Structures are given as C-alpha cells and as structure tokens.
Amino acid sequence: MKKTLYIFQNGELRRKSNSLYFESEERKKYIPIEDVSDIYIFGEVDVSKKFLEFVSQKEICLHYFNHYGYYIGTFYPREHLNAGYIVIKQAEHYIDNVKRINLAKKFVDGSIGQMMQVLKYYRNRIVEGKEEIDKIVNDLVNNRELLKDCGSIEELMAVEGHSREKYYKTFDFILRNDDFKFEKRTKRPPLNRLNALISFGNSICYTTVLSEIYKTYLDPRIGFLHATNFRRFSLNLDVAEIFKPIMVDRLIFTSINKKMITKKDFDKNMEEIILSEDGRKKFITELDNRMKTTINHRHLGKSVSYRRLIRLELYKIQKHIMGEKDYVPYQSLW
C-alpha cells in the first residue's frame, strides 16, 4: 500500500533518476516514487519545475503548511481521471436547489450521527458527566429531526453549527484535564491547546480527503453543503464533516488521555497557541497509524483502512449524482 510522506525538515526535494530525493543538512535520502501517495510539507523545502512535472506525472498531491502548522495550499496535479459526464452531473446537483439540499442534508445528518457515536462510546468510559452527555446526545437526536424541515443551505449550516457547539461542550467531560480545557471554539487564531489540536487535525483531515478525491472522477471544486465560490476546493470540506469526529476528535481524546501529547507540545506565538514541531510530529504519527488501521466493513464483508473508507464514501457520492444509488453516509458502529 502506498504511504503518505511527511517532511518536517528544511531542505530540497527533487527528482533523481526515477526516484524522489530529499537532501537536508542532516541527511540525504532516496524515496521510491511508487511508494508515495501524497506529500505533506511542513518545513522550508525547495522544489523545482522538473520535480513538479515528475510528481504530476505520478499523480501525487503536495500539501503545504507554514512554519506554525497552518495549511497554505495544495499543488493539485492536472486531473488524470477525466469524465465530463461526472462533472456535468455534479454541477447539475449543485445548481438544482432540491438536489443540492438533499445531498447537503446527508452530509449534516452523517456528521451528527458520527458525533453521537463518539459520545456514546466515551459515555460508557467516563465516571462523571454521563447525564450531561446523555442530554447532549438527546439534543443531537432532535437536531437530526430538524433537518427534515430545512429548506435552505443556511438552515442546514445553522443546524450543523448548533450541533457541533453542543458536541464540543462534552469535551471537558471526556478529557477531565485542566491543561486542555475547551472553553469555546476559536480558530483564527486558536486561543488554547485543545482548539489548536482541533484546528490542526481538521486541516489534515481536509487535505487527506482532497487527496482521495483526486483518485476519483469527482471535481473537488464543486461542493454541496459548502458553497462553490471563489475558494479553490469545497467538496473535501463536505466529506470531511463525516470523518472529523472519528478521525480527528477520537485521536485527540486518545492522545491527551494517554499523555501522548501534553502541554509541553505547544508554543505560544503572540496571542495564539500553536502545536510545536514535536507536537505536530507526534500527532501526525498517531494520525497516520490510525489511517492505516483496518476495520471490518459490514457491507463489503472485509477489512478496510480508514483511508480506504474515505475513498469508498466518494464512490458512493459519485453513484448518487449519477442516479445509480442514493447516498447513505458512513456510520461508525463503535
């Protein structure tokens, strides 16, 4: 199975023969190109036009993050899977308000369902706060019912926002850690350690989904819940709503509760709190391990990795817009 390459060091990344070659002050390393699915660059890494042509030919996305771990952008090679019919059907489902809302509802419903599953899992593993979590799960059940009467994207976004706000209130009950108090959701900039973890994890989730979209006929520029406007990509934001609770949030709980990540893994930059380089490396290592973890897929009858689950979700969306089968969001069972 191909692997994701993460580069934290400063250096130069180039093509040498038919391999990738990374050179820094500390080391020189050849990387077999056929083993790489996508590349995440966190350090100051120089690349050449020849290198970009090479990774484009090999259908590899490059995701860039700045010194503080903030997502900058993606080198998204020219699409190798071109299907005008799919793009037309995708645009049709965006322009037709009924079709768009129908699909957008499924993303919100799937997202709330995953939040509920995460809460049910941890509700059985905590000593204090069970009643509070039960109440919030009940609120999420009611919010899912509200989706039926939503007639606009704005209403759907409001339900999703209120649901996530309720969901975040449970984090302190699950963590019980004074070094990681939630307080409130802050993004730009994150004002505490827990928000810094959430923001960083979500960025990785968005780019992981984007890499998987590249391997399908879908166009990442045409989303449904998130508006297709002047932002470059939006479909990955839609699909990530379903995977953030099980891919990012559960990893955050595990990393903190097992003390894999502590307050020492954060830096204060001006008024914001950010993950240190060591903190980012730790989180990325655990997330990469999680993405490789396999689970039994109840419909396929075989084990698939979390990363493969994302691709399967995209195939389901593709079938939906082609009119072959109604899309049903993935629902974790544990």
From TrEMBL:
Keyword list, A-Z: Antiviral defense, DNA-binding, Endonuclease, Hydrolase, Magnesium, Manganese, Metal-binding, Nuclease
Keyword Manganese recorded: yes
GO molecular function, one term: DNA binding
Enzyme class (EC, first level): hydrolase
InterPro entries, alphabetized: CRISPR-assoc_Cas1, CRISPR-assoc_Cas1_C, CRISPR-assoc_Cas1_HMARI/TNEAP, CRISPR-assoc_Cas1_N
Keyword Chaperone: no
Cofactor: Mg(2+); Mn(2+)
Gene Ontology biological process terms, A to Z: defense response to virus; maintenance of CRISPR repeat elements
EC numbers: 3.1.-.-
Organism superkingdom: Bacteria
Residues reported to bind Mn(2+): 160, 226, 241
Role according to the record: CRISPR (clustered regularly interspaced short palindromic repeat), is an adaptive immune system that provides protection against mobile genetic elements (viruses, transposable elements and conjugative plasmids). CRISPR clusters contain spacers, sequences complementary to antecedent mobile elements, and target invading nucleic acids. CRISPR clusters are transcribed and processed into CRISPR RNA (crRNA). Acts as a dsDNA endonuclease. Involved in the integration of spacer DNA into the CRISPR cassette.
Quaternary structure note: Homodimer, forms a heterotetramer with a Cas2 homodimer.
UniProt cross-references to HAMAP family, sorted A to Z: Cas1
Protein name: CRISPR-associated endonuclease Cas1
Gene: cas1b
